[in-house]
C-alpha cells in the first residue's frame, strides 16, 4: 500500500492535474530501473522490424530550442507542418522519429544510453510485449517514482537544496532559454543522477513516460 497524488502543500504543478493524496493498496510488482534507452529500442526494432507511429505518419513534434535552423525553417515553411497553436514551441517536423529525434538532420550518435523518444503508447506497448513486460499503471508508476516516500514533493524528499544536481529539467526562461545547469539542454542518459530509494533513475525529469 502507498500514498498516491500530491500532498496538501501549495504546488505550482497543480495545473498538471494533480489530485489530493489518497492511499491505495497495490499488489507487488517489478519495474525496470530506467527508461528504455535508444540502444534497447534499437535491439527491439532489429529483432522485429517494427515501425513506430511517427515513422508511419512520417512526422512528429520537436521542441524548437533543440532543432536546427534548417528544421525550424522546414516546419514554418508554407508547405510545412507548422506549430501547435496553444504551445508554439512544439513544431511538426517531417522525418522526426526515434532515430532522428530533432529532425532529419539529427542522429543518435553518442546517445545510445539516452531515452528513446517519439514513442507513442502503442509503440511502448509493442516494445513491452517483445521484452516480456507491460506498461505500469498510473498508481504503480507513482509508487515506484516516490521511492517509498509519502507527503513529499520530490523522489528525494523536500527541496532542501539545489534540485538541478538531482534531475534533468528546464532551467531558464521557457521556451527560449535553457541554462543547462543540470548538464543537459535536452534529454540525458537514462541512469543520470542518483536513483531513488527503490533504485529507480530519473523518476523526475528527463523525458515523459508512458
From TrEMBL:
Residues 1-10 have a biased composition (Basic and acidic residues). SUPFAM superfamilies: C-type lectin-like (SSF56436). Gene3D superfamilies: paralog of FGE (formylglycine-generating enzyme). Residues 14-210 form the Sulfatase-modifying factor enzyme-like domain. Residues 1-26 are annotated as: Disordered. One of its GO terms (molecular function) is formylglycine-generating oxidase activity. GO terms for cellular component: endoplasmic reticulum. This is Sulfatase-modifying factor enzyme-like domain-containing protein.
Amino acid at each position: 500500500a502507498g500514498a498516491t497524488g500530491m500532498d496538501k502543500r501549495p504546488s505550482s504543478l497543480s495545473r498538471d492535474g494533480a489530485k489530493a493524496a489518497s492511499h491505495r493498496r497495490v499488489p507487488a510488482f517489478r519495474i525496470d530501473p530506467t527508461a528504455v534507452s535508444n540502444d534497447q529500442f534499437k535491439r527491439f526494432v532489429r529483432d522485429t522490424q517494427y515501425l513506430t507511429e511517427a515513422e508511419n505518419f512520417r512526422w512528429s513534434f520537436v521542441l524548437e530550442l533543440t532543432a536546427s535552423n534548417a528544421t525550424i525553417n522546414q516546419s514554418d515553411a508554407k508547405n510545412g507542418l507548422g506549430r501547435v497553436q496553444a504551445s508554439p514551441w512544439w513544431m511538426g517536423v517531417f522525418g522526426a522519429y526515434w532515430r532522428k529525434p530533432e529532425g532529419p538532420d539529427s542522429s543518435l550518435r553518442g546517445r545510445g544510453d539516452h531515452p528513446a523518444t517519439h514513442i507513442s503508447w502503442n509503440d511502448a506497448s509493442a516494445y513491452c510485449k517483445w521484452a516480456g513486460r507491460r506498461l505500469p499503471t498510473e498508481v504503480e508508476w507513482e509508487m515506484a517514482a516516490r521511492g517509498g516516500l509519502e507527503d513529499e514533493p520530490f523522489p528525494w524528499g523536500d527541496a532542501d537544496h539545489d534540485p538541478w544536481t538531482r534531475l534533468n529539467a528546464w532551467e531558464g526562461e521557457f521556451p527560449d532559454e535553457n541554462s543547462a545547469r543540470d548538464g543537459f539542454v535536452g534529454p540525458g542518459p537514462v541512469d543520470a543522477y542518483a536513483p531513488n530509494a527503490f533504485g529507480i533513475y530519473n523518476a523526475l525529469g528527463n523525458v515523459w513516460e508512458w
